[in-house]
Amino acid sequence: MAVWPLIYNFALDSNALTYLGIMKKLLLLLLLAAALPSAVRAQAGADEALGDSCMELRDTFHALEYYRKALAADSTAELTRKIADCLYLRAEYARCTETMLAAAGPDGDSLDMKRLYEMFDSYRRLDDARQQVAWGEAILRRCPLDGETTAAVAAIYSTDSAYTPRKALELTGRYLATDSTCIPVLRQHADALFLTKDFTAAAADYLKLAALGDSTFNTAYSLGMCYMQDSAYAEAIPWLSLAARKSGMKHWGCIYRLGTAFVETGNAMGGAALLNMAYNLMQPDNRSVYLVKRAEGDAYYKNGSYDAAIYAWETALKAYPMSLATIFNIAQAHGLLNHKAKEKEYYEMFLKLAEGVEKPTDELKKWIRQAEGKTSAPAGGR
């Protein structure tokens, strides 16, 4: 029997077995590799579901934790948007907009209405009028009869320097052509007419608002001012009176215009009483005046601007005449300017007022000694 053929056949069988073993291992690895993404996706789906459950409970803290864990395993646009939803509810508006933008698509096309409103409101809270307008316009492209958003965008058009009230008129006019009784939009249309000085047309809008039940201070006051601008003083009086009552008789501008209308219609004494009331309402709180002017004087004094310091301190003193420190400071400033007569006058005023202090502090005693030393010298100079 030949040996070589047997050896050769055995070698072939061994190689075949080795090859089959390698192929089995390779197949197993391929199967594992194919199964791994499915397992990862399954875990990510589970984490996302947990995040959704947390959001139903308004638990944004744990929802963010689960969503971020899911996103790390399986990054999707929807998960990114869900994270932005969480940030919005947590009032993290800057991070919300930054996150949402990454999954918003061109002009926000990938966002549903809820998320468009989130972007619109986030930029409102961030005081970013330009972006608020951009997202408001995106909302209106889908929902042209969204009155609330129309009014909000129109308000920015009327008040932001980047736009003009004319743009607000165009926007609100298009809306009102379909729905003429939407109070927020009609209000913005009226305000835009007022700002463009079309007072007659504005008055017609404000009257319509009043008829619809919008009897707010703004409507009554604006209508009264429209009549004032057109010199229709008798027509202005009932609306300005209503606005004044709604303000609790605290709005000096309204009461001033009402007083003027009284005078113009022949009720001079009634107008004078109202104008005096407006004057009294205009006066600032004395304590606030004292604190501000006292601090302003201190600033000028430290800078060596003694004349300016004296002027500020004298204003503070009118608001609070019993301030020993302010009187003493004025005396010192006059001394530094070599105004001997004025210096002595204020030191004497200080000493007279200090006599009424029952228990003077050590600091006050020091000031009294200094003032006494200055008043004992003969007055001279200016």
Characterization of this structure:
The chain is mainly alpha-helical and 382 residues long. It is 77% helix and 0% strand. It contains 19 helices and no strands. It has helices spanning 4-56, 60-73, 77-89, 93-101, 113-125, 129-142, 147-159, 165-176, 183-195, 199-211, 217-229, 233-246, 252-264, 268-282, 286-302, 306-319, 324-336, 340-354, 362-375. The longest helix is centred in the N-terminal third of the chain and has 53 residues, at 4-56. The chain is flat and about 120 Å long. It starts with a helix and ends in a 7-residue tail after the last helix.
Taking all Cα atoms into account, the compactness measure Rg is 39 Å
Structural class: mainly alpha
Name the poorly predicted regions. 378-382
Mean pLDDT: 89
Helix content: over 70%
Number of helices: 19
- What order do the helices and strands follow? HHHHHHHHHHHHHHHHHHH
Q: Could you describe the largest sheet, including whether it forms a barrel?
A: none
Give me the count of strands.
0
| Beta-strand proportion | under 5%
How far apart are the termini? 145 Å
